[in-house]
Structure formats: C-alpha cells, structure tokens
Amino acid sequence: MYVSAPPPLRDRPRSAWRALGPGLTLTRRQEYPPDLGRYSDLDRVYFADLLALHGVPYRDDLLDAGRTTFREMMAGLLDGLRPHHHGYGVAVLASATPDAEPGWPIPYLTDSAERPGLAFAVSDQGPLAPFTALELIVDIAATDRAGRALMVAMDQCARQHDEAVPDRIAATRNAAVALVFDGSAPGAAVRVRLSTGVTAPDVARLLADAGTGTMLPGTMLLGTGLAGRVPGARAAPPGTPCTGPWSLLADALTDPGLARSRLVVADFDEELGYLGVCVVDPPGTAG
Question: How far apart are CA 275 and CA 287, in angstroms?
C-alpha cells in the first residue's frame, strides 16, 4: 500500500486556475427512479447500528420505500459511456449525499471496466465535491500522464432517518452526471478553480475576476448555492446539490446554440466557504 501526505498548502497558490490536460470529449447525465432496489434484512441491521452510534433514531419503515444506490446508478451510466468507460488513468466519484449501500460504487466501476486505473471517491466537500474531484484529476493526470479521466457526480435521495438535512446537501432525486476527458480525441478545453475561505460578499468579485464573459460569449450554469445571484444565468433546480450544475453543462453541450460558446459552471457553499468555477471552452477557442 502506498501512503503519502498532502503537499504543504504554502506550496500551492490559493484560488489558482488549473487546466485539465485531456479535453472534455463526452458528457452524459441520467436520472433514476427512487426504488430500483430493496433493503435486505442485513442492511436494516447495518443502518440501525450505524445510526445508533451517532445518536440518531432509526426508523425501519423508511426503508420499506426502497432505494437506488450509487452502484445501480453507476451501472446505468456506464452503459451509456461505452466504449469510453474503460482504459482511464483516473476516475473519481463525487457526492454530497451518503450512499444507501456503502462500499460498492468504486469496486463496481473497476470490475466493470477494462484496464482500470486509479479510482476513488470524494465526499465531505458538500456540493463543491465535483470541483475538488476535477482539481485532483488535474494533479493526477499531470503526474501520471493519464490519457483518459472520468469524473462522476452523484445524488441520491434515499433516507434511513427523519432528522433534518441542510438544504445545501439535501437531494430530492437520484441522478448522475459523467464527464469523460480524453487526450486522444479533440475536446473542449477545461479550467477549474476552487477558492477557499470565501464569504458571501466575495462571490461577485471572484466570479468577475474569472473573466468569464470577456473573451467569448458565455453562459453561466449555477449550482443551488448561487441560484438567483447572477442575472441571466441558468440555475440548477433545488434538491440537486452535486449534479445540478453539471446536468446543465451536459444539456448545454448538446445544444447547438450553446455548444460553441463559453460555458461556466459555478457553485458556492457558504458554510464551507468554497467557491468553485469551471470554464469550458470549445476546441480551439480557449483564451
């Protein structure tokens, strides 16, 4: 097992733009019904014990409604990515909600793909998890010269308790969005910037500093944390903490009226103080 420590924060500029080497060549989004699967008796024991450890009351009747797990969503998503789902150097699953079946999505991904590379998940980053995932892909792709990378954002709405969940991470649907980056094919140029220590008054300045509308006509695609903050922008619907703005991106890239313009995906988590901005430029137009 290889174990490493993170690099010192002083060695990395804060709020720096990071460019992905491979271009964005394919996006796919998909929504799923809430009850593709059922809880087993063992699952019920597991969740009862898990919630008890955290002092949360367990309600067995909530599990009767069924669930749609990340593994089940991954299976449906990969079918739509073939043959681009295999041969990747790195794949990252990003989520804000916990899985209704812990431990399965990444092993399923590596078992289902040919020539799998490094695969892992990012959580505990709130709705900004996909931006963190993209920054990690930048670093890993540069180090390992990964020719193909995969980022998957997921939301799932199954609940095993009735405690209040903050709106910023509460999901009301089961959804997944995949972004495939491939250095062997022409693709959109992608830059990502994750700023930390951001307060609400900083948001407008940091979005303006991105230069998002100065070089190409652009369209802003906002997550729920920025809904209503930018006039004329497209905003994700409530209940889509991780997948919302990336679903908008997937739709925009299939729209002939938008696919040749600059697309800017952005979201803000005021509680964590994170602001993520991802700029997607058509091939040959980045500037």
Answer: 22
pLDDT in tens, 26-55: 999 999 999 999 999 999 999 999 999 999
Tokens encoding 115 = 């020539």
**Is residue 183 within 8 Å of 21, Cβ to Cβ?**
yes
Task: Give the contacts of 4 (CB within 8 A, at least 6 positions apart).
Answer: none
Q: What does the alpha-carbon distance between residue 66 and residue 73 come to, in Å, rounded to a whole number?
A: 14
Domain range list for the chain: 19-182, 189-281
Q: Span 92-103, mean pLDDT?
A: 90
- State how far the Cα of 24 lies from the Cα of 35, in Å rounded to an integer: 32
| Burial class of residue 213, CB neighbours in 10 A (0-12, 13-18, 19+) | middle
Q: How many residues does the chain have?
A: 287
Q: Do the Cβ atoms of 149 and 89 come closer than 8 Å?
A: yes
The Cα 173–Cα 239 span in angstroms is 7
According to DSSP, the β-strands at 274-281 and 90-95 are unpaired
Q: Are 37 and 72 in contact (CB under 8 A)?
A: yes
DSSP per-residue letters across 102-170: TT-HHHHHHHHSSS--EEEEE-SSGGGHHHHHHHHHHHHHHHHT-SEEEEEEEE----SS-S---GGG-
pTM: 0.90
List of residues 6+ apart from 49 with CB closer than 8 A: none
CA atoms within 13 A on the CB side of 106: 15
> How far, in Å, CA of 160 to CA of 274, rounded?
28
Q: What is the pLDDT of residue 13?
A: 47
Give CATH for domain 19-182.
Answer: 3.40.47.10
